[in-house]
Design goal:
Layout: H1 3-8, H2 16-31, H3 50-70, H4 73-90, H5 97-116, H6 121-130, H7 133-142, H8 149-161, H9 171-182, H10 191-208, H11 212-222
Helix pairs in contact: 2-3, 2-6, 2-8, 3-7, 4-5, 4-10, 5-9, 9-10
């Protein structure tokens, strides 16, 4: 799941450090894709600081939500459906249709959450602003990241850009998918392919929208309390 989908499960959480912890794994990957962190293997390093404990709770919450989501029937069915839909846009492209469908589902869910007003993007950003940046740096140090300046600069830009507001428009979802693919392939899509992808995403969005909340309610019913 993507940023706002993860935030859905903490939309009423008043602990801003748990909230940012929930999206921290994705923030790290966006900032420094070569970094792999496993704080759960060294939990004792975070127990002396309650704020770092909150960050760890959020991090583990993220992993659990992703585990449930990726093993759900919803994910399997919807991945197959979107994959078939976008096949024409992937012809003569290096992009793997399953890869694109996987990410596409997650971004479309974020889009629907914003359009429906199911999550409040302003409140999400307010929580990120209030989070303890010194504790985040210490958390990353405990995870083995010696230079936290790169991530903290990325986080500041992520907050100030308010990029997630762009998810309110479906055309920005195809743009975001193209940008993600460009991290792996230099020229993933032609302009015509991007336009076709946009058209297919609209069809998919309209098809999944009536039942999109089912998967969130399903995960919510399984998640243990914090």
């Amino acid at each position: 799941m993507n940023f706002l989908s993860h935030y859905y499960f903490e939309r009423d959480n008043t602990d801003e450090n748990i909230v940012i912890g929930v999206v921290l794994p994705d923030l790290i990957k966006n900032a420094q894709k070569e970094i792999n962190l496993y704080p759960g293997k060294e939990k004792h390093l975070f127990l002396k600081d309650p704020i770092q404990q909150s960050l760890l709770k959020g991090w583990e919450r993220h992993l659990e939500v992703d585990r449930i989501f990726h093993n759900s029937n919803f994910f399997k069915v919807q991945t197959a459906a979107l994959k078939q839909l976008i096949l024409p846009a992937c012809e003569n492209s290096p992009v793997k249709p399953f890869f694109l469908a996987h990410i596409g589902i997650e971004l479309v869910l974020d889009h629907i959450l914003t359009v429906k007003g199911t999550v409040n993007i302003n409140t999400f950003y307010e929580q990120l602003i209030k989070s303890d940046k010194k504790a985040i740096a210490a958390f990353l140090n405990n995870c083995g990241v010696t230079d936290t300046s790169i991530f903290l600069k990325f986080l500041d830009n992520f907050i100030t850009s308010r990029y997630l507001f762009s998810y309110q428009k479906i055309e920005n979802i195809s743009y975001a998918l193209n940008r993600i693919c460009m991290r792996i392939w230099p020229h993933p899509f032609t302009e015509a392919q991007t336009e076709l992808l946009h058209e297919k995403l609209i069809i998919y969005r309209d098809a999944v929208e009536p039942e999109y909340l089912d998967i969130f309610k399903r995960i919510e019913s399984i998640l243990p309390p914090l």
